[in-house]
Amino acid sequence: QITLKESGPTLVRPTQTLTLTCTFSGFSLNTNGVGVGWIRQPPGKAPEWLALIYWDDDKRYSPSLKSRLTISKDTFKNQVVLSLSNMDPVDTARYYCAHRDTPTRPFQNAFHIWGQGTMVTVSS
Amino acid sequence: DIQMTQSPSSVSASVGDRVTITCRASQDISKWLAWYQQKPGEAPKLLIYGASSLQSGVPSRFSGSGSGTDFTLTITNLQPEDFATYYCQQAKSSPPWTFGQGTKVDMK
């Protein structure tokens, strides 16, 4: 059974750097094709794709946030870490990590399993 | 960036109805499209990938179609547990990926 759980601060001050950890089980980030991504969702709004890291350490970022984002993995600890610098109140959102399975069928790209998310508020 | 536009933004329906939601991409994404269902207080749940492939465990009353820039999610015989918000997501082979703005299905 695949599970993911996000952890990190619930309150961040403006200009600070947010660091979130996704701890997962039921799969390995050493497995060919697997990826873990981060998505955020402000209250009452649509999800926003942030970043994705693949088994081979290939990293992809949202173009609009690329300068502020860093994603990394620790395959021994089964963790993926996301950092978002220079936080602003508009970054207030629920942050999710999610599993991207190894594609076995055509066009099988999606986030198959999501964590419960962690709410992050940016306020002074 | 590829923009995803969903319509309508909300739809009122009754149990047993057929509901259709559309999603349009700002450029050709072939069949690199996924649909998610989200209920209040929960994470999104994958329903369909590859525009029309049903994720394991998802009821067959959900179906998807389309390719290129125009896509459709159809729910036939709407059930009480289907009242939720639905999002499309373009998931081209090379990210970044983007979500639509959502369609809320509520009770008439």
Question: How would you summarize this macromolecular structure in one to three sentences?
Answer:
The complex is a heterodimer of chains A (124) and B (108). Chain A is mainly β.
Would you give an account of this structure?
The complex is a heterodimer of chains A (124) and B (108). Chain A is an all-beta fold and 124 residues long. Chain A contains no helices and 11 strands. In chain A, the strands form 2 sheets. In chain A, strands 2, 4, 5, 6, 9, 10 and 11 form a 7-stranded mixed beta sheet that branches. In chain A, a hairpin with a 4-residue loop joins strand 5 (48-54) and strand 6. Chain A is globular and about 45 Å long. With 108 residues, chain B is an all-beta fold. Chain B contains no helices and 11 strands. In chain B, strands 2, 4, 5, 6, 9, 10 and 11 form a 7-stranded mixed beta sheet that branches. Classes of the chains: A mainly beta (124), B mainly beta (108). Chain A binds chain B through residues 37, 39, 46-49, 52, 60-64, 96, 98, 105-117, and chain B through 1, 30-34, 36, 43-46, 49-51, 53, 55, 87, 89, 91-102.
Helix content of chain A: under 10%
Count of DSSP H/I helices of chain B: 0
Overall geometric form of chain A: globular
Q: What is the general shape of chain B?
A: globular
Parts with pLDDT < 50 across at least 5 consecutive residues of chain A:
none
Helical run tally of chain A: 0
For the secondary structure, the number of strands of chain A is: 11
